[in-house]
Amino acid sequence: MTGERRVKTIFCIFAEPDRFGNTLTRLIKTLPDMKRKLIIGAILSLTTVCASAQIAPDQDWAQFGRYAADNEKIIEKPLAVLMGDSITDGWDGKDPDFFPENNIICRGISGQTSSQMLIRFRQDVIDLHPKYVVILAGTNDIACNTGYIALEDILGNIQSMCELAKAHRIKPVLCSVTPSVQFGWRKSITDVAGKISELNAMIKEYARKSRIPYIDYHSALAAEDGSFPKEFSYDGVHPNLAGYKVMEPLLLRRLK
Hints:
By secondary structure, this protein is of the alpha/beta class. It has 2 domains: 3-52, no CATH class; 64-255, Rossmann fold. The protein has 14 helices and 5 strands. The chain has helices spanning 3-14, 17-29, 33-52, 68-73, 86-89, 91-94, 98-101, 114-119, 121-124, 139-142, 151-167, 192-210, 217-221, 241-255; strands spanning 80-84, 104-108, 132-136, 171-175, 214-215. α1 runs antiparallel to α2, α1 (3-14) crosses α3 (33-52) and α11 (151-167) packs parallel to α12 (192-210). The longest helix is centred in the first third of the chain and has 20 residues, at 33-52. It starts with a helix and ends with a helix.
């Protein structure tokens, strides 16, 4: 297939063929050879990126498989399940004794957004029948890990998890997003500290109106500029052991 025909095919997929595909093909034919090749190359590169961003048919997008086997082994009802992303996922690795000593189960998955947590909420929370579910979500949403999502929609996902928990007689506990001023894997995201503060205010207000306990990790950990100081974090996003030691009594206070 020639370059012009490939461009036409691409635009037939993403737009109206008569308005875009044919028009662009005719326009490209009028350009000098070098410019034509550059434009075709740029368009094909763009569509390669778009195609690679699609989810593969065999991809476990919500990562149901991550804890499937572990969930089958649980016999005793846990006091609490911690639902979250890498902030939660790294907790039992940094302080593994904290979880069994307090009958708490870690169900964090690194990189996850609130949308993914909501999808796996039944398997990793409801079906385990805990007394509490502690929800810590938002970092990866702000980082656009699964694409752009408005702060209001992040809150909506969190609200949905709370409503599901209540419907199954599980007490939700909400947490502030932990501090950061930059995401090392997504440096293009600006005003990180401001977005975190805005989302935290929304979560806190929802918790207040809904009479849901709220744990303010952010105030306990953040520096004045909203950053995660080295004293408590190894990379400006994730807590180190000292950071988790600050978080643990705040958590236990809401569970007992």
